Amino acid sequence: MTTTTHKEKGFTIGVSCPSCGGELELEDNFFAVACDHCGSTHRIIMPDNPPAYIAEVKVSRQKARFAIDRFLKDKGEPLTTSDYQLKQFYYPYWKIDAILFRLRKGVEKRVLVDDHGQEKGVSYEKEKTDISLAPYTTTVSAGTTFDGLPDTLGMRSDYLKIFPLADEKIKEDFDVLSVVSSWEDVRGSLHKYVGAISSYDKNQFGVNKTDLFGPKAMLIYFPFLLFDFYDSDGFNRFVVDGVTGRVLNHITSLNSESSTASPNRTVSIGEIDVVSHRCHNCGVDLPAEESLVYICHNCQVITDLEPGVNIDSISEVVHEKNEHNIMIPFWAFTIKGVDAELLKSVFGGIYKSERIVIPAFKVKNYNALYKLTKRMSAAFPQFSLEQLTKMGRRYTNVDLPLNEALMLIELFAKTDRYKKNSSDKRSPATFQFDKVTLFYAPFHLESYFYVDSILQAVTLEKNLI
Known about the structure:
Elements (H helix, E strand, L loop, with lengths): L11 E5 L6 E4 L5 E3 L6 E5 L6 E4 L5 H14 L10 E29 L5 E23 L14 H4 L1 E4 L10 E2 L6 H6 L1 H4 L8 H4 L1 E25 L2 E8 L5 E5 L21 E4 L16 E3 L6 E3 L10 E3 L8 E10 L1 H10 L8 E5 L6 H14 L5 E3 L14 H18 L13 E14 L2 E4 L6 E3 L4
Parallel strand pairs: 1-8, 5-10, 6-9, 16-20
Antiparallel strand pairs: 1-2, 3-4, 4-13, 5-8, 6-7, 6-10, 10-11, 11-12, 14-15, 16-19, 17-18, 17-20, 20-21, 21-22
């Protein structure tokens, strides 16, 4: 009996293990990975500048030409001639990952009907607000316009395996085309790429806002093979995907202005680094799980992995130890000055609290995230904290970086202004915080919810953890 495994959706990055040289595949969290060859654990350090990657060529010119002939045969057209011009190159694309924020606010008109479905002549209007956060990925051309090449990689970027850009990964006889659109150019025009998402009838939906938050970019060089030739009908160009061998485009005329050379841009490219995933104090391997904070099980020293953030201590809510509890992490911020009044109006009901408390784990459900933030912020003054010196299996991972937690506060404030139709143009990015604390609170499972084990008041859905 044989079994077949299918790789789940998600592009990967291939790098070499620093210990044994074996190939490592980085999943899309790009964080920690254990080597299947030598068992060592490594951590991925992402650069400040966008990194550059290259897709491996898997199609020979013979296979590409065979794909074109099959394409022509299916259309009942003559096959290619031996007199063709072949261009092989890597074309650059920017891949952008961000959080898509969508707010739809409008008025719904509802009509009452009787038991037979007949209108009673009575109607009323109800205001409806829909808010959602969702991952958003797009790819856009970074090179000069070239006839026949796609403007985006589309769904291919979801399944692609890529490698850090290096000379040894560039296939012989392939050229690398220049980048003419910098990340700064693309970042400044991102609203153009989400315009279609927000193109609803404003008269029907009222407030209609779509924004991107926290965009991160990488540069991907993708291989193409272009076959140019003439037949009895004139010019032909076939564009072949260098990874799958699929014919992507067939054009019969060129735009004389499209392939004109554009000035090469100076693009700052970062390089990812693969380092040993160990305690910096005693050298013991840390778990190969995505977490930004660890307390070493051997020496109890904190290892904080988020760049620019120094955590001197971790706290936990004082509680009676119970094997049924799980310890869930939260960020707590002390609010400064006028920001305190502004944010307390956003998180109504936390007037006794000086802290905004954000989950330190990723939650995709916006409304659930907002409710949990509000409840934990209101509950915080009733918690007593003590320093945490040792972690166990009951402590869940910290996978929401501090900078993303701050971004969420901006989103909450922005949403509140939209709901209230406020004309306040003040940027939430100017909010001032200090005394950042990471703490764990005990929760226990009751049916489909986790309930806090101190106040028995804060709940969160089971599937959020």
